[in-house]
Design brief:
This protein is an all-alpha fold. It contains eight helices and no strands.
Length: 121
């Protein structure tokens, strides 16, 4: 049986603001599967693409821990457990990119990158 997919979800997946980690989130919530190469966000830019996706589908955000459960041997559990803190870091360093839905060339997010690097190790 074919699952009904929301038009907004279809528009997003064929758009230009995707990355491996946001596609992993999309696949989990839209089709209940995992992509060939599932990925967790690796840097602030990658996290930003996930942020935009979760802004489009806000009911997924409180369920982000499901990715940690699905991929226990990856960095997903630690990232999911710290998602709200990382979101606040992103919003404080890249407010234009977060609110505008596009890259605005804001200052480097060095502290966030270091925090994510530690969580991924």
């Amino acid at each position: 049986m074919r699952r009904q997919v929301d038009q907004a979800a279809l528009d997003w997946i064929i758009g230009s603001k995707t990355g491996a980690s946001s596609v992993t989130i999309w696949a989990h919530f839209v089709v209940g599967s995992c992509p060939k190469h599932p990925s967790a966000p690796s840097d602030p830019s990658d996290f930003l693409r996930c942020y935009w996706l979760l802004k489009l589908f806000p009911d997924w955000r409180p369920r982000i821990s499901e990715l940690g459960d699905r991929y226990p041997n990856s960095s997903w559990p630690k990232l999911a457990a710290n998602w709200e803190k990382l979101t606040k870091m992103l919003e404080s360093v890249w407010p234009l990119s977060c609110s505008g839905g596009d890259y605005y060339g804001e200052r480097p997010a060095k502290a966030m990158y270091e925090r994510m690097r530690k969580l991924r190790s």
